[in-house]
Predict the structure.
Amino acid sequence: MEPVITSFLDTDMYKLTMHAAVFTHFKDVKVTYKYTNRSPQKTFNKEAVEWLKAQFLMLGNIRVSKEELEYLKNTISYLPLAYLEYLANGGFKAKPEEEIKFETKEVEGKPGHYELDILVEGLWIKTIWYEIPILALVSEAYFKFVDTDWSYDRQVENAYAKTQKLLAHDIVFSEFGTRRRRSFKTQDLVMQGIVKAAKDANKTNLVLGTSNVLFAKKYNVNPIGTVAHEWMMGIASVTNDYINANKNAMDYWVQTFGIENAGLALTDTFGTDSFLKSFYPPYSDGYIGVRQDSGDPVLYTEKIAHHYNEVLKLPKFSKIICYSDSLNPDRAIEYAKVAHEHGLKATFGIGTNFSNDFQKKSDNSVKSEPLNIVIKLLEVDGNHAIKISDNLGKNMGDPETVRRVKQELGYVERKFAGDNEAHRWAA
């Protein structure tokens, strides 16, 4: 069996920036991550399970090469030198046989159908890398052994056509598809289509790059990413301070990379209302904008525009809003208009619609739905880790801690019409 994941760089860029921040501030912190299938109707067979066991173990063979280190040093120039030296001296060495706890449970009344129970445990600095490879492998296993009613036909052409449509409307976007890609090959084909369309349209400046560092390197585009919910969740959990969690997370981030490299702020970990209470200078000046990842995108745009333009009195179009939640070209075009109407520059991170958009081979009119799977922090140094977000469907973690923190923060419950997590990409 050949390994699917063969490079340290086959991950999203924000895992590497967060790895650097954890290395800088939290070397001794222990964590537990938990896998969740938000589309529980999709189960696995024995062949998929056995293949995954073997693929997980092969992650232990990955090392950071000199060429990869040189690429990181030259391309993500603000990574701390001490972090790069840590990698160069063999600091990264996955031990999946110790760090990945993988069990299965047969579904009651459905012999041969299994639910996956995956935990990752160990030092944060040693385990942070696993999330994206595990998710990518789980998705690949499902579509290799369970749902096989699909083909690679026209994947390059489809990505090309979507990119053409986006560029015709001058949409600025990045490819964000690693974690839920149908397969490694799919993401490679998609990148071929995106890059070719951008060159043919003479609009390569509108394609910012890809979140996948390996494909950024292969296709000579920028690796894109700043931070994930994991960072805010981890800081809140290790300090047990949810009132100041967003501010503390930004402080640690800026101390690691400098205010000039703060990037985009992710606002919804504990609800955007809570985040905005901390989002004043110097943070609001240093961060180039915000990323929308849950809730109603239009209401979110209005809220962010009000904060930037009315509360902070910043000039219109001086800040960016990056939409990254369940996008397709039509939604991107729609939200770009909304952002413009509210004085914000729009960018987009489009993931699953690029890397896992297939029809059934037996009936091309029926969509072959992607999995909706996540891996999130469960515990940090023995404390519960939670995520609230801007809609109910994305709440995660210990229910009692979620309830307590919502009360502490004065969180207002909202349900968004687009938050059917079991069938997120059904349309």
